[in-house]
Amino acid sequence: MISLLIISFGRYQDVLETFQCINKYQGNQVELLFLDNNLERKLETALSSIIESNSSILFKYFHTGENLGVAEGRNFLIEKAQGDILITLDDDIEIEDITLLIKKVIDYMENNAQLGALAFNIKNYFTRNALSHEIPHGNKKLDFSQNLLTYYFIGAGHAIRKNVYQKAGLYPKDLGLYGGEERDLSFRILEEGYQILYASNIVIYHKVSPNGRMSKTQENFFRYRNQLIVLNRYMPRIYRYSANIIWSLFYLLRMEGNLKNIIKVHYELRKLEKYTISDTTLNYIKNVKGRLLY
Question: Pairing state of beta strands 93-94 and 195-206?
Answer without folding.
Answer: antiparallel
